[in-house]
Amino acid sequence: MEQDSLKRLLIITGTPGTGKSTLAKLLIEQLGLLHLDLYELIESDKKLSSEYNKEKDCYDLDMDKVEELVKLRLEENPGQVMVLDSHVAHHLSSKIICGAIIVRCSDLKELESRLLARNYSANKVKENLDSEIFDVCYDESLELSVETLTFDSAGGLDESSVVSLVEEMLLSMNLF
What domains lie within the chain, and their CATH numbers? Predict the structure, then answer.
């Protein structure tokens, strides 16, 4: 399959708790995009996750294997834009990514509350707050050199504006 025909993955990335999944659901409902659920992929193929990282309190992913499975899903859905929301989505190759949405939360107290509501350990909360403070996902996403939108979820998102901007971005790429 021609490589450009696979360049239909819209990633939504950002620190955990910033609202990536909420935004993905909105775009899927409003724009009719297909959802590529990373957690579902991991459940369907345990080889994507190498081992449990006790220090980080999460599973380590083999991103090469994740990318191969994402490519397979893109091939199975020709012509469809697919959305993948994950704090590691920006580690996929720009060869399959048509655009990136970075979700941030400038209100660190709000972000901390969201993470604590998920029962994250104190270390995991600190690690994720540090990631947000130092713009880790943002900076790494810019290295992809794909069209990028950034939204701040502090206080909530203006849903109609967000949907319009994403639709405009996809239209400019002739993907919508």
Answer: 3-158 (3.40.50.300)
Closest CA to 39 of 10, 6, 66: 66
Q: For the whole model, what pTM was predicted?
A: 0.93
Neighbours of 8 (CB within 10 A): 22
- CA–CA distance, 86 with 142 (Å, rounded to integer): 16
| Helix extents (H) in 32-121 | 38-44, 63-76, 108-117
* Contact predicate 103/14, CB 8 Å: yes
Contact between residue 95 and residue 5 where contact means Cβ atoms under 8 Å apart: no
| pLDDT score of 40 more than 90 | no
Closest CA to 127 of 37, 28, 16: 16
DSSP three-state, residue 152: strand
Percent of the residues in the chain that have a pLDDT greater than 90, as a whole number: 81
SS3 state at 9 = strand
User: What distance in Å separates the CA atoms of residue 59 and residue 51, rounded to the nearest whole number?
Assistant: 6
Mean pLDDT of 3-12: 86
